[in-house]
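Prompt: For my understanding, could you write out one protein's sequence and backbone structure tokens?
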Amino acid sequence: MEMPMEPTQRLMEAVRIGNIDTLIGLDPYLLEPIDQVQFADTPLHVAASRGLTSFAIKIMSLKPSLARKLNPEGFSPLDLALRNGYVDTVRKFVRYDCDLIRVQGKERITPLHYAVKTDDTDLLAAFLQACPQSINDLTIQDENAVHISVKNKRYRAFRVLVGWLQRMDSLEILDSVDEKGNTLLHTAASTNQPKACSLSLSLSLSPSPSLLPSLPPCKVNLGK
């Protein structure tokens, strides 16, 4: 005779097969013990990683705090949807709560940072539009999104970010330094990225004269 499953087991089984009907009338306190664990693979993480959008949104409605919880690998549910390519799930998550873009995971990397690293300019633009403040978030190495774009040679993402900063009149962010004291221009020059150097200089990023001799040579075309 088959033993009946415990409520939590029923929930996880429902996630596994994507049966949203199981959540109807579910006691939200069932999710409380899971929420007390600092790092956990919650039903929301599982649903997000499989692109079960409606199921995931229902879980968030029952227990919103789960959307900010990290799993043992340091990823939030939005991180997992993003890294597994479930763009519709990502967009629905952001529509539900735009501040999820700012949830810092492993090494304090946010979904915005990941969009920059992968040069996904469509999602990057959507994230900036939904949550403008997310551009200020720093990784564990004190790198903002612009630092990450140049460090990873993601010029398309760099252009999107610079355009956004111009629009928001926040170009001072480009003068910030990472934990090693490197500015955007230092990084672009040291990795020989002429277009990034050119755009940086055209925006009047002015390093201290004392720093200029220390910048590696970088071929910059300042013409049209």
The chain has a mean pLDDT of 84.
